[in-house]
Design brief:
The chain is about 30% helix and about 25% strand. By secondary structure, the chain is α/β, with parallel strands linked by helices. The chain binds zinc ion.
Length: about 220
């Protein structure tokens, strides 16, 4: 695991690096990649004390190994309120994605089994010193985790810091064919950009440590 900020770590071991990201904040694992990621997750956690597993959103490359993590570690499953039904009925994931072959292929090959949600996260909730902010659009219930004291933002897929198909680095909006409501997602991105986060952690792409860059990017997006 890589140190990102106090009490914030990024799991390594993925290929390509930063392709599909997971983080630990305090004793909470954020996201669980695809259903093939179990080995990587347990190797990276290396016996570390994890007491809950939470998601940014219920998509196949974020909830894939969630059931395995919660079962093996015996920890509660925390999912965004607006996505909690999809966490418990993963067939809703494909149903809510755009009807595009790549989206449907990802849903078929990456999504993991259902697991009961123990806590539905909503705006203002606290998770390991971070505040939950609702940021819908890329999924119905998408949330971000924000720690105002030092400006750390776990953004999920509201923006990507790499092209998820080619792997080319750079800040961008998520692919439209993987985003049910791109305009709502853009409004969420603009709202979060106004926080002027100092460290931005993405579902896809390397951490961004240039404080102004995300705000500049989201301000430049059309309304
Ligand atoms: Zn993703």
């Amino acid at each position: 695991m890589k140190d990102i900020a106090p009490d914030v770590w990024q799991l390594g071991g993925g290929f390509p690096p930063n392709g599909i990201n997971m983080f630990v904040i305090g004793d909470v694992l954020i996201d669980a990649a695809t259903r093939h990621a179990g080995r990587r997750i347990f190797r990276e956690l290396d016996g570390r004390d994890i007491n809950a597993h939470a998601l940014t959103h219920v998509h196949p490359d974020h909830q894939g190994a969630s059931h395995e993590v919660c079962e093996r570690l015996g920890v509660p499953y925390w999912a965004p309120e607006g996505d909690a039904d999809a966490a418990e009925q993963p067939e809703l994931i494909a149903e809510r994605q755009p009807d595009h072959p790549v989206a449907q292929f990802f849903a078929r090959t990456m999504s993991g089994p259902a697991h009961p949600v123990d806590r539905a996260l909503k705006e203002g909730d606290e998770v390991a010193g971070f505040t939950v902010l609702e940021a819908p659009g890329h999924s119905r219930g998408h949330i971000a985790y924000w720690r105002e004291s030092d400006g750390v933002l776990i953004l999920g897929d509201v923006l990507n810091n790499m092209d998820v198909i080619t792997g080319i680095p750079g800040l961008r909006e998520p692919k439209r064919f993987l985003t049910p409501d791109p305009l709502e997602n853009r409004r969420s991105a603009k709202r979060l950009g106004e926080l002027e986060p100092k460290i931005v952690l993405f579902g896809h792409g390397a951490p961004l440590r240039d404080g102004r860059k995300m705000a500049e990017f989201t301000r430049a997006l059309p309304d």
